[in-house]
Amino acid sequence: NKKINKFREAMGIMQHHDAVTGTEKQHVANDYSRILSNSMRDGNELCSDNLRNMMKKKENSDSVEFHSCLQLNISSCEHTENNKNFVVTLYNPASQSLSTYVRVPVKGASYSVKDYLGKELVTQLVPIPASVSKIPGRQSLAVHDLIFLAREIPALGYQSYYVSEKTQEEEIQSDEPIEENQ
Amino acid sequence: SVLFMGGDTYDISVDPSGRVVMQSMAKEGIRMTQAFQFYKGAEGNNMVFSNRSSGAYIFRPNVTRSIDFTYTGKFKIFKGPLVEELHLTINEWVSEVVRVYAGEDRIEFSWLIGPIDVNDKIGKEIITKYTTNLESSGEFYTDSNGREMLKRQRNKRPTWNLHLQEPVAGNYYPVTTKISMKDGVRQLRLAVLTDRAQGGASLEDGEIELMVHRRLLKDDAFGVEEALNETAYGTGLVARGEHTVIFGSDSNEFRLHEKKEATRLALRPWIFISPVENISYDDWK
């Protein structure tokens, strides 16, 4: 509850008309950003703890970390750029199931994405525009966005996908067309 | 080089002045262009009303029409099984990615604005303008905090006879998630869904504009005593955001589609990444 309270306090402070409209002084606006980013960090820890609790195998679930990347909108995420294998877990906050395209920034040239049934998904790599690459303050080595379709994430539930970078030989072997997901 | 994109529903390309041009035969022949433009912010001594500066509290352009950017950029189109993308650069600090995803009946505009150039000592207010062949008869709709849609009429107020002092700003309204318009004769509708609250208006029939970023150089004397000139990393703030454009016949299923898309934009999944460097897929499964 302590972590959620920070969010509650943040939303309490930001009922003020200055916070809603942006007519506060610059240093106050910066402080609002600080309060919100701390709350997002705590919220991330809360969700990670809950996701870990929901995982089936207890013995090794403690070792699994869940990281949020709050700069996915400018194609920057150290965890997808610096790991050849990673799991993407999507938590759906809506009360209906949801299908959505997922975009994560990567450095590699070819990736395989599998769902929890072992089905390999159709993926696509799109170059990150030069204008995004030069945003002041963006520290990222990613050159592509990896895109795949996450189908039917359950309402108020989650879905995970195993992403692995293909080595050169794997890439050559796997040039048969991936069967289209029905 | 590839000049068109848009899957099998839209034909999207870029004209010589850098506007995105969209034709859609599959959609009752709706035509649309999207362009970035800007207003110059008014600067005054704030002593009398007519000398107010544009600032954090008020939007007050010192021109009655928005100004085109000079298109000095280029564009590239990427196509694949899941998404088709148009990467468009207008100039040093205005660019966007236009996306059409497979199986989704919408067009995504991912805009990137900033640092806004103020070397000419002129504050600027950047808009994106969607211009269509719809006859909207001076009416448009904006949502009220993501809930009901309120009807708006250009140069009018529902409860008193308006004598408009500010022809542009007086027609701007708050948009939390959605602004739309319809062609009553052809029974067609167009909606622009936003990923954050913005100011929006329809200053000409068939047009919708939304303000995406502002950088002003003079305080507007309403109390904050600071110009709206936000900076980061020692330069003007960069803003990146997303608009989703959907259109079709003015029907119940279209409104349901609008509502689902607005919810999807506002309540997206939270993405977590777990490095599993030494855990194979089978172990993980």
Structural class, from secondary structure content of chain A?
A: alpha+beta
Q: Please report which band the strand proportion of chain B falls in: under 5%, 5-15%, 15-25%, 25-35%, 35-45% or over 45%.
A: 35-45%
Strand order of the largest sheet of chain B: 5-6-7-8-19-14-13-10-11
Please report which band the strand proportion of chain A falls in: under 5%, 5-15%, 15-25%, 25-35%, 35-45% or over 45%. Answer: 15-25%
Structural Rg of chain A: 19 Å
The parts of chain A where pLDDT drops under 50 for at least 5 residues are 174-182
Helix content of chain A: 25-40%
Report on this model:
The complex is a heterodimer of chains A (182) and B (285). Chain A has 182 residues and is an alpha+beta fold. Helices cover 35% and strands 25% of the residues of chain A. Chain A contains 7 helices and 7 strands. Chain A has helices at 2-13, 17-21, 26-54, 58-61, 78-81, 130-133, 168-173; strands at residues 67-68, 85-91, 98-106, 111-114, 123-127, 144-153, 158-165. A 3-stranded antiparallel β-sheet of chain A has the order 2-7-4, with no helix packed on it. A 3-stranded antiparallel β-sheet of chain A has the order 3-6-5, with no helix packed on it. In chain A, helix 1 runs antiparallel to helix 3. Chain A is globular, with a radius of gyration of 19 Å. Chain A starts with a helix and ends in a 9-residue tail after the last helix. The model of chain A is unreliable at 174-182 (pLDDT under 50). By secondary structure, chain B is mainly beta. Helix content of chain B is 7%, strand content 42%. Chain B has 2 helices and 20 strands. In chain B, the strands form 3 sheets. Chain B has a 9-stranded antiparallel β-sheet with strand order 5-6-7-8-19-14-13-10-11, with helices on one face. In chain B, a hairpin with a 5-residue loop joins strand 15 and strand 16 (207-215). The mean pLDDT of chain B is 93. At the A-B interface, helix 3, strand 1, strand 2, strand 3 and strand 5 of A face strand 6, strand 7 and strand 20 of B. Strand 1 of chain A pairs antiparallel with strand 20 of chain B, so a sheet runs across the interface.
